[in-house]
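Z., the sequence and structure:
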Amino acid sequence: MGVMARWWMMSCAVGLAFALYACQTTGNSAPSQPPADTTAPPPSSEPDSEIPVFRYRIVNTFPHDKEAFTQGLEFHDGYLYESTGLNGKSSLRRVELRTGRVVQIHRLANEFFAEGITLLGDKIYQLTWQNGVCFVYDRKTFNQLTQFRYFGEGWGLTNDGKHLIMSDGSATITFRDPDTFVEVRKITVRASGELVKNLNELEYIEGEIWANIWYSDMIARIDPQTGVVKAWVDMEGLPTPNRGLEDVLNGIAYDRQKKRIFVTGKRWSNLFEIELVAPTHEPNNQ
């Protein structure tokens, strides 16, 4: 099966998975992950082989808090910085890589559902899902410095050293001024001409935006100028036993000094350092 076809099937599965989960909730219960626009794009008429597909090799496995509903992940000066979601459980954390031990934590008020984070200079920016608030903290102390308001949902956040780069669960990525949070420009993400929706946690790696695709094991590598998906990273097969419906791949961090890539997911007990394996080009007749 071609990559675009499998991606299309996973997009269809998003709607089914959300519907099944919704049927299990009662009263005021609500899914702990935003219900995205789950309309699946039609299968592309262009060959899958036009977009290279990378696989991975696990280099190291590290412990990860299995109660952490990972929404954002960063690496800086030997530590992981993590944003965890859910109302009443949202937090900002500094975590030891080797042990998974939380060495510093800031807990958000119960009404906030935290989402993506990014570090720029001496500041940490943290999105919220439907609260329309981006919190700005001092990187060392976690003291709140200010906050910004925005319209719509907040999902993933990263930066290119100049602008904040934000996803909202759609196919749109927005570049924002870090001093004002004002929108600078937008890109629409497409693969083989089709919209790529459900863009979730983001990381900026060597001139590309990497994006988790919600409810899938695929990571899109996106051209920040055009929005075109330059490559896929297929993370299928990571050893993540006892995954629940919502415990999806979500969390990409990059060590710029040592060129290391880390991935994890919501309530996963492990975090993985990976290396990319040479891309494959799948025949169209599979």
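Confidence is low (pLDDT under 50) at residues 12-48. Residues 3-280 form a domain with the Lipocalin fold (CATH 2.40.128.630).

Let me know what you think.
H.
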